[in-house]
Amino acid sequence: MAFFAQKNRGEIFMGYPAKIKYAEQIESLIKELRKHLRTLGRSIIAERGMAIAHFYTLRLLSKNNFINMAALKKELGTTGAFATAIVDELVERSLVKRERDKDDRRMINLYLTNKGIDFLNKVKRRERKMLALFTKTLNVAKAKIVKRGLSILIVSLKDMTKRFDA
Q1: Over 60: is that where the pLDDT of 11 sits?
Q2: Average model confidence (pLDDT) for the chain?
Q3: What's the fold here for domain 48-165?
Q4: Residue ranges per domain, the chain?
Q5: How far apart are the C-alpha atoms of 103 and 95, rounded to whole Å?
Q6: Binning pLDDT at 50, 70 and 90, where does residue 166 land?
């Protein structure tokens, strides 16, 4: 496979064979990264005796003041019975509370309790601690490389998202 580059509008473009090679390598690295992040995330959640759907529900509630059962069912992509089972367990653990909507008594809204907020804060502290341990293993030069690489990846993904949304 031959590698070649050409200048075009101030950017350097790799030849087709090199693009395929790098695309395959990047895909492999992203898969590996996702695998490790999932493993770390699951260990944090498992330590708390919780399934991913429970944790995702708590995260949804932390981003919004509340969510109703219909919206939760849609967000989880599940049946009403499954969403209810998830909420039942979170209510039983006092992490979430249910309240009827003031304007529409048929609607049930879910809110994080103080215990739920504390739980998420503990998880966030644990995530930060794991990230600190990771960055501690890097010297300054490697940390800069990781930061630069992630920044490039994010910019590229944002650009790609804009193209797909257009």
Answers
A1: no
A2: 82
A3: Arc Repressor Mutant, subunit A (1.10.10)
A4: 14-47, 48-165
A5: 24
A6: low
